[in-house]
């Protein structure tokens, strides 16, 4: 059986080039049904990204599939239940991107609260000649609430301590971290936070966790930051909260239906938007690519995978 790999979407070309120099790489999105059927039996590995959908329908069309290698830490698009049922392993790229994602979280928090982009537009529009920029909201020393206290959540908390911010968090279980306060519900966390930063995993368990009630609890001085998945926020509720002043602002790297961003969020001084760039530095994307290739190499060598997802 040849070493055939199916790229389902969005994995960087540099990684695809590396992979195709060692293995036969097929482009799922560029294939017609006839071509797909002709190679379906040869595919042992799927190469996916954090945003890819690898559902049971695709998995069940590939009888010799043994590995789904995800370029990203989030694997909410992969039907892991269907994969594990067929003895298919799944790998992701944890750790190597934690710093970048946490850095972006801090950048969004600072930029939204201090209105960095609004202030830049103010200069660019020539408005500084008439009046000073409006006063904004302080970051240092104010309360940060983190939703999802995993690797990225901890990295954000570590950075926030440098800003003298009291840190609270919500997760399924309290963590062993006496410097951060556990809140048993998101409502309580939101009620006790000036900034609410979403660092949780995507998927059905976190779907629309941040709804109208949570935004109301965050309140008119609160700022919401999302560096995780758009699915975690009820986006229409967020748009309404921004339009009505229910919250003070937002910093968003992820959206419910990327690359579409609600029109109502654009061009506001209190809303900072980035196009899902949490892990998108040259350094980290190289490390992620090496990890993906390492997992694929280990798979074909019959060795233990570097970063398998537990069943
Ligand atoms: C994407 C991500 O995987 O790690 C994740 O979960 O969302 C990102 O790093 C990346 O954009 C590649 O498509």
TrEMBL record:
PROSITE patterns: D_2_HYDROXYACID_DH_1 (PS00065)
Segments forming domain D-isomer specific 2-hydroxyacid dehydrogenase NAD-binding: 106-278
Domain of life: Bacteria
Residue span, D-isomer specific 2-hydroxyacid dehydrogenase catalytic domain: 16-308
InterPro entries per UniProt: D-isomer_2-hydroxyacid_DH, D-isomer_2_OHA_DH_cat_dom, D-isomer_DH_CS1, D-isomer_DH_NAD-bd, NAD(P)-bd_dom_sf
Record-level GO cellular component terms: cytosol
Any Pfam family: 2-Hacid_dh
Gene Ontology molecular function: glyoxylate reductase (NADPH) activity; hydroxypyruvate reductase [NAD(P)H] activity; NAD binding
Record keyword Oxidoreductase present: yes
Keywords: NAD, NADP, Oxidoreductase
Homology family: Belongs to the D-isomer specific 2-hydroxyacid dehydrogenase family.
Record protein name field: Lactate dehydrogenase-like 2-hydroxyacid dehydrogenase
Native source species: Sodalis ligni
């Amino acid at each position: 059986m040849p070493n055939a790999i199916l790229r389902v979407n969005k994995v960087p070309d540099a990684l695809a080039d590396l992979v195709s120099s060692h293995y036969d790489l097929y482009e799922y999105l560029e294939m017609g049904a006839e071509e797909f059927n002709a190679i379906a039996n040869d595919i042992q590995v799927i190469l996916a990204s954090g945003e890819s959908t690898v559902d049971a329908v695709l998995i069940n069309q590939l009888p010799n599939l043994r590995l789904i290698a995800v370029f990203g830490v989030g694997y909410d698009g992969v039907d892991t239940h269907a994969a594990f049922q067929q003895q298919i392993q799944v790998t992701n790229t944890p750790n190597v991107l934690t710093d970048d994602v946490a850095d972006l979280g801090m950048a969004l928090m600072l930029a939204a609260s201090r209105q960095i982009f609004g202030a830049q537009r103010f200069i660019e529009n020539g408005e500084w000649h008439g009046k000073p920029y409006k006063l904004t909201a302080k970051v240092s020393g104010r309360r940060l609430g983190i939703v999802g206290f995993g690797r990225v959540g901890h990295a954000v908390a570590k950075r926030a301590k440098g800003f003298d911010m009291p840190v609270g968090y919500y997760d399924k279980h309290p963590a062993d971290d006496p410097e951060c306060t556990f809140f048993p519900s998101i409502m309580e966390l939101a009620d006790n936070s000036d900034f609410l930063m979403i660092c949780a995993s995507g998927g059905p368990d976190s779907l629309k966790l941040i709804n109208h009630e949570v935004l109301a609890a965050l309140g008119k001085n609160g700022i919401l930051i999302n560096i995780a998945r758009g699915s975690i926020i009820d986006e229409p509720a967020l748009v309404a909260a921004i339009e009505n002043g229910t919250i003070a602002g937002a910093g968003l790297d992820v959206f419910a239906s990327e690359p579409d961003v609600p029109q109502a969020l654009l061009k506001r001084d209190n809303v900072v938007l980035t196009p899902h760039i949490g892990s998108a530095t040259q350094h980290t994307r190289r490390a992620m690519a090496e990890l993906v290739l390492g997992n694929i190499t280990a798979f074909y060598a019959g060795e233990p995978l570097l970063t398998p997802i537990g069943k």
